[in-house]
Amino acid sequence: MEDKQAQTKKQLLDAAIEIFHKKGFQKARVSDIVAEAGLAQGTFYLYFKSKEEIFLHICSEFTGLFSSVLIENNHIFEGDSIEIIRDNMQRYLQRLVTLFLSNTKMTRLVFWEGNGYGGQFNDIYEDIHIQFVEIIRQRLEKAMESGLFRFDDAETVAAILLGLFDRTLFHFTEVKKEVDAHALSCRITDFVIGGLVGERTVP
Fold first, then answer.
1. Which of 153, 184, 174 is nearest to 89 (CA)?
2. pLDDT tens, 105-139?
3. Vertex 175, ends 97 and 29: CA angle to 5°?
4. In angstroms, rounded to a whole number, what is the distance separating the alpha carbons of residues 99 and 94?
5. What is the pLDDT of residues 88-114, one digit of tens each?
6. Cβ count near 29 (within 10 Å)
7. CA quadruple 85, 88, 92, 98: dihedral positive or negative?
8. Of 54, 61, 171, 184, which is least surrounded by CB within 10 A?
9. How many Å apart are CA 166 and CA 162, to the nearest integer?
10. What CA–CA distance (Å, rounded) separates 54 from 29?
11. End-to-end alpha-carbon separation of the chain, Å?
């Protein structure tokens, strides 16, 4: 019974992601979601009260999925040399890019559309952004102990790195619609490493 319920809930979530992706949140209706899922409309309300609630659930899943990757990689900026750090970072970024690419529709909803809906959705987007910046900040502050990097404000650097990653992925997935995960992760890594080990320009 629990397996059946889990499967039905997954059908609804997958259908909601597809409908929100096709129509946008504002134009999507619960009837569209259940039609996509191949379920009766009454079934939807056994699991979610509204399209707003299922959207919030999608946001929560997104946060858990990507936060777990960030949290697992405690040593992304650590190593005895810049070369080791570069290799670690490149492997990690390639994993993260691949994860984004395998969840493109969810990424678009939460990162690139969700913050445009205002109200509660904008608050969620800001919470996700703050959470990711905080995780990266902690990693950077730990890495500063090595003496290999030259920066003073880990929070600012973390926000820049998140923005760089976000906008770069947006360009290649939404504008160019073509991504080479390995090549992209290498280029981002080289750019980031160059910035972190460079001379400071602000006293």
1. 184
2. 887 777 766 555 555 667 777 887 888 899 889 88
3. 85
4. 8
5. 889 888 888 888 888 888 877 777 665
6. 12
7. positive
8. 171
9. 6
10. 11
11. 63
